[in-house]
């Protein structure tokens, strides 16, 4: 298993962490699922400070999707094997 830190769109966190897709469009869900599958994502954990706060900021290049507000998240993943 590998670990990296990625810029994850804030709008996707409920789905990635709690599997709650309410409020997301089918296109957004497909974008998240594609990213998870391509990288073999197992766990998404937002990076927090000493007070357990995250620090959202705007990014032109999030891990997936269009430019948006993101938070840094630790990602545990397994690189999928190409068949």
TrEMBL record:
<protein>
    <recommendedName>
        <fullName>DUF6926 domain-containing protein</fullName>
    </recommendedName>
</protein>
<dbReference type="Pfam" id="PF21977">
    <property type="entry name" value="DUF6926"/>
</dbReference>
<dbReference type="InterPro" id="IPR053839">
    <property type="entry name" value="DUF6926"/>
</dbReference>
<feature type="domain" description="DUF6926">
    <location>
        <begin position="5"/>
        <end position="77"/>
    </location>
</feature>
